[in-house]
Amino acid sequence: MRKFYLLAVSAVLVTATTGAYAAGGEIAVIVKTVNSNYWQNVQKGAKTAVGEAKGYTMTFQGPAAESAIADEVNMVENAVNRKVAGIVLAPSDPDALVPAIKKAWEAHIPVVLIDSSLSDAGKQYYQSFLSTDNEKAGELCAKALIDRVGQNGKIAIMSYVPGAGSEIGRVGGFRKYIEAHSKLQIVGPYYSQSQMATALNQTTDVLSANPDLKGIFGANEPTAVGMGRALKQTGKADKLVAVGFDGNQDLQDFVRSGTIQAIAVQGSYQMGYKGIQTVVNVIEHKPVPKQVDTGVVLVDKQNLDSQDAKNVLY
In whole angstroms, what separates CA 134 from the centre of its chain? Predict the structure, then answer.
């Protein structure tokens, strides 16, 4: 009887260790919101990669708004409860998602992060992180603004969700570069919560309160679109320099018309595509890098129709 018990325990241990990840099954892709062309482009990349991976299916989810952090936490926990094969996650908050990711780790479900990282407390619970180097991207935007505005005057920062990993790096990199390489005075940041209408209203107010503004930075897609619309509606489109972030059709049109002078565009399709490829490699016990830079391209009127720009615009 004792011999049978020991064999049974050994079998359980082998299953728990060597069979932790089983090839095939559902991969849950959970992003900050589904109400954005940026995240829909991530979905396109993920869908293509799943189609190339044998034996896998994909579900795609996100809250109604990037600020609905509790909803995203619930989505991750639900994915863990239904025992998905793997999770590709764009965390909307660096701390709030850590307990949910820990549950995935305890359930032997691999997690690959895209776009935004987690705080140090969560680093042991995910296998890889794919994103733009947001600090460098913020620096790129700051340089583009200085090149067009000059060293002196006043500029505004229109940001999105305070505390989001990408926002900390992107706006932080922008601010540090401005402070280190110019004497420009910074107004803001103002937080739109990634709501275009909010960004439009905030930008309108900032333009009204600062008639001497020389430049303005919109730090993500809905914020930059709201900023561009405010510039057009107030007749300020040709009165100051605007730099935006991301590359949907609205932002491309703003660049073409001169409403926005430059946009920094991330490889959102590649995040989805490589996110799926990476989590499949983890499931199938293949080595993956802990961090991958998916790149950024600065697009202006001069290179808007180039192949490099077309590769990232959406």
Answer: 9
Which tokens in the block code for residue 16? 């728990």
Burial of 248 per CB tally in 10 Å (0-12, 13-18, 19+): buried
Tokens of 79: 């994915």
Phi, psi for 192 (deg, rounded to 5): -85, -10
- In the Cβ-directed half-sphere of 170, how many Cα atoms lie within 13 Å? 32
The angle formed by the CA atoms of residues 281, 284 and 289, to the nearest 5 degrees, is: 30
Single-letter amino acid, residue 270: Q
- Kindly state the helix (H) or strand (E) to which residue 216 belongs, with its residue range: strand 213-218
Mind listing the domains of the chain with CATH numbers?
22-132+268-294 (3.40.50.2300), 134-265 (3.40.50.2300)
| CA-derived radius of gyration, the chain | 22
Please state, as a whole number, how many other Cβ atoms lie within 10 Å of the Cβ of residue 253.
13
Residue 211 contacts by C-beta under 8 Å, 6 or more apart in sequence? none
Report the side by side order of strands in the sheet with 128-131: 56-61, 25-30, 86-89, 111-114, 128-131, 291-293
Per DSSP, what are the bridge partners of residue 177? none
Q: Which of 202, 302, 222, 312 is nearest to 267 (CA)?
A: 312
Query: What's the CA gap between 251 and 75, in Å, rounded?
Result: 30
With beta carbons less than 8 A apart as the criterion, state whether 275 and 130 touch.
yes
Enter the pTM of the model: 0.85
Could you identify the residue written with the tokens 């062309």? Answer: 37
pLDDT digits (tens, 9 = 90+) for 154-200: 999 999 999 999 999 999 999 999 999 999 999 999 999 999 999 99
Residues 43 and 298: their CA atoms lie apart, in Å, by 23
The 10s digit of each residue's pLDDT in 222-268 is 999 999 999 999 999 989 999 999 999 999 999 999 999 999 999 99
